Description:
Layout: H1 3-22, H2 24-43, H3 51-71, H4 75-79, H5 82-88, H6 93-122, H7 130-154, H8 160-187, H9 192-220
Helix pairs in contact: 1-6, 2-3, 2-6, 3-6, 3-7, 3-8, 6-7, 6-9, 7-8, 7-9, 8-9
Amino acid sequence: xxxxxxxxxxxxxxxxxxxxxxxxxxxxxxxxxxxxxxxxxxxxxxxxxxxxxxxxxxxxxxxxxxxxxxxxxxxxxxxxxxxxxxxxxxxxxxxxxxxxxxxxxxxxxxxxxxxxxxxxxxxxxxxxxxxxxxxxxxxxxxxxxxxxxxxxxxxxxxxxxxxxxxxxxxxxxxxxxxxxxxxxxxxxxxxxxxxxxxxxxxxxxxxxxxxxxxxxxxxxxxx
Length: 223
């Protein structure tokens, strides 16, 4: 393990330890996502719960739950005066971005592990396809890659709670739409071949923002 990797993991572990002490972000994300799925599952009649609607419900829960998590990614450090100290550390801005992004990915994956079984049960899905796990993982990486960048941008604005979704959701819409479409296909029993084009879009989105976001982050994080 090289020195850069150790720095990235140290930043990620700092965020994880902070969350383990308070559990505020995890509790908020899980509660919100569960509430969305439960409310919609009771609102729909059994015959109305098609695969496309189910996929939409799942990604609405993931998306808005993720936005809540992103909104807290830099806010706690900003409010407690720790963000400036973190920026003064001898760490490249790219490594700081990667550490924060990985911590968001970890938070979202843990939430998704809790939510997916509940989703399958409450929306009466007949099976739990492996493809859905792959789609969720790839889309989560893209979601966190662009979300970390816009979370850092919004934290220095006055209306940061409003600005984050306004800035973030239009940019993240391609990966969210691709995730919904591909999830609907696999929930309907579709094969890998049926979702290759959507998976290609998600992967392309991930690659672009994993390259561009660390380069732009240095300018975004400065006040």
